[in-house]
Amino acid sequence: MSTSSPLPPINLINRMWEHFKEHGEMRHPSYGFDAKNVRFALLPTLERFRRLFPNGLIVEKVFEDYNAESAGLQVGDVIFACDGIEIKSLLQLWELMFANVGKEVELEVARVDLKVIKNIGLIIGETSIDEEIYQ
Question: What domains appear along the chain, each with residue ranges and CATH number?
Answer without folding.
Answer: 10-126 (2.30.42.10)
